[in-house]
Amino acid sequence: MSKDSDGLPGRDDFGDEFDPESGGQDVAQALARCAREVADFVDAGGWHQAPQMFALVPTATLAAAEPGLLDDLSDGAALTPIQQHSLPEDITGGSPALDEFLATTTWPEGVVGCALVEEIVVLPPAAESTLDDALVPLLADPDAADRAARSAAENHPEKRDARLIVAVLEDGPSLTLLQLHPDEDADPFAPIDLRVAENLAPNVVHGLYATFDTVEDD
User: Fold this and answer.
1) How many CB atoms lie within 10 A of CB 215?
2) Helix axes 142-155, 125-135, angle to 10 degrees
3) Cα of 85 vs its chain's centroid, Å
4) Starting from the edge strand earliest in sequence, which strands make up the sheet with 113-122, in order?
5) Cβ pair 185, 40 in contact under 8 A
6) Which pLDDT band, with edges at 50, 70 and 90, does 8 fall under?
7) pLDDT-derived band of residue 188, with 50, 70 and 90 as boundaries?
8) Among 56, 21, 19, which Cα is nearest to 35's?
9) What is the rounded CA–CA span in Å between residue 216 and residue 218?
10) What is the pTM of this model?
11) pLDDT at 198
């Protein structure tokens, strides 16, 4: 895992070069392993962090370009996540500003996927239904509805803080994971609990895929 966009991690046993268009279970497994590495990396920094973006790059490509980094790369990993430092400081998890940032994000050649980590608030299904009903009068003003929804969720007695990890491969699969904030009496040394949440954030998945859309010059 690299902590900035200039440093790259890796090892000397990478197997075949990763091909995001090859399809099959190997690609899905590579994405899952990379998403888990991202989740572990962010979790090491504790909670109450700003959203973070990661570029996903074939490890073999990094090894060829930067052989001096071989000892730092994950052994056998097909993909290496590279942390980006381009998010504005005022962007928070789930905010419209984050959607706007994704809409203007593009990647250089060699990046085959990306991942976004953000902290969110989750509510039980019954609470979400009540909240949706309360927001109906505000739907004509999206900004007002967003502010009201965020305020109501933050102040709800049954809220749970959580971390959302969404990873996609260009022209490949996506993976959405949810990490709930552990209870106060939880074992601090236990592995983090990640749950697959396929339908939790389709707008984020779409936004990440859109960062690979190319606009042809006229």
Assistant:
1) 6
2) 150
3) 14
4) 79-83, 52-58, 113-122, 160-169, 174-180, 194-196
5) no
6) very low
7) confident
8) 56
9) 6
10) 0.76
11) 84
Best CA proximity match to 175, nearest among 108, 122, 115, 85: 115
Question: What's the chain look like in SS3?
Answer: CECCCCCCCCCCCCCCCCCCCCCCHHHHHHHHHHHHHHHHHHHCCCCCCCCEEEEEEEHHHHHHHCHHHHHHCCCCCCEEEEECCCCCCCCCCCCHHHHHHHHCCCCCCCCCEEEEEEEEEECCHHHHHHHHHHHHHHCCCHHHHHHHHHHHHHHCCCCEEEEEEEEEECCCCEEEEEEECCCCCCCCCCCCCEEECCCCCHHHHHHHHHCCCCCCCC
Two structure tokens written together for 189: 């040394």
* Angle, CA 77 vertex, CA 75 and CA 80 arms, to 5°: 110
**Residue predicted with more confidence, 218 or 176:** 176
How high is the pLDDT of residue 145?
Answer: 46
Band (pLDDT 50/70/90 cuts) for residue 2 is very low
In the block, which residue shows the tokens 């973070």? 52
